[in-house]
Amino acid sequence: MIRNKPFVLNKCVRPKVAFFKLTSCEGCQLQVFNRESGVLKFLNQMEIVDFREAITGTSSCYDVAFIEGSVNNEEQKMKLIEIRHRADTVVALGSCACFGGINQLVASCEKGISEADKGKISPSPKTPKALDEIIQVDVHIYGCPVKKKELESIFPRILSGKPVIHNKYPVCRECKQNHNICLLDLGEPCLGSVTRGGCDAWCTGSGMGCWGCRGPIPKVTQRQLERLSQRKGIDFDSLAERMSCFGGFSNLLCQQTEDLYKSCQL
Ligand code: SF4
Ligand code: SF4
Fold first, then answer.
1. Residues spanned by CATH 3.40.50.700 within the chain?
2. What's the angle, vertex CA 21, arms to CA 210 and CA 17, rounded to 5?
């Protein structure tokens, strides 16, 4: 773990901001341009000096670095360490950067491949890592992809050096606020009751159960989920399958469950 500059931003009116990608789909970076009505106001708060989706120039001089994606190889690891040395503030943008995201499924997929078949496929990368397994990360912005509204609310706090405090309530609360019908009551697996809120019940509001892309709320245990699945008559296996998807729940799943469901059976 690299310990670097403290989470204090240089006082400047328009900080130099750079966006980088490691192994990612660029969906989180695209969110920067979402909510068109406010996009100019948002972008006017910063001077973008490196962002391959927006400008052709690059720079090695920046105050804030947003990094999307997991670390999948040595080259990315070295790039990440260099960014950490250059930036005052490093922001992990999205589930891949925060937890390994869907990329972390690649390692578990290998477990499901027979020895005979292994020789027929290209070797997969080593287990993709979250950024904070390698460097100190100052701010995490969760989600697959991140929510632009949340990005807009967090960015001024980064500029003013204020701590970013994430919601402790679950997606479930946002469902209730939005008067959504509980999907568990309809027999649909859903992690909304244990997943960090802030997405405004994005999937559940559209009738799809939550897959936990924003990671768990504090103090959740696997036992709680087992009891919930019994109470609601939901197969626990389907909840465990969802917990293994983005990597945020990896500390929660007991080894036995993890071995069972991280075997490319999704
Ligand atoms: S978190 Fe999701 S949207 Fe963002 S880069 Fe990863 S896969 Fe793409
Ligand atoms: S409902 Fe769940 S899976 Fe969907 S965006 Fe929100 S946290 Fe992510």
1. 16-160
2. 105
Nearest residue (CA) to ligand 1, atom 6:
96
| pLDDT digits (tens), the chain, 266 positions | 333 444 444 455 689 999 999 999 999 999 999 988 889 999 999 999 999 999 999 999 999 999 999 999 999 999 999 999 999 999 999 999 999 999 998 866 666 566 666 665 555 557 899 999 999 999 999 999 999 999 999 999 998 888 999 999 999 999 999 999 999 999 999 999 999 999 999 999 999 999 999 999 998 888 888 898 999 999 999 999 999 999 999 887 754 455 444 544 43
The closest alpha carbon to 244, from 51, 125, 103, belongs to 103
76: Cα within 13 Å, side-chain hemisphere? 21
Claim: this prediction has a pTM higher than 0.90: no
Nearest atom of ligand 2 to the alpha carbon of 192: 2
Q: Which listed ligand is nearest to 98 at the C-alpha?
A: 1
Pick the CATH number of 16-160 from 3.40.50.2300, 3.40.1440.10, 3.40.50.700, 3.40.50.170: 3.40.50.700
Please give the number of the atom of ligand 1 that sits closest to the Cα of 28.
4
Whole-number Å distance between alpha carbons of 26 and 256: 33
Kindly give the distance from the C-alpha atom of residue 149 to the centroid of ligand 2, in angstroms, as a whole number: 14
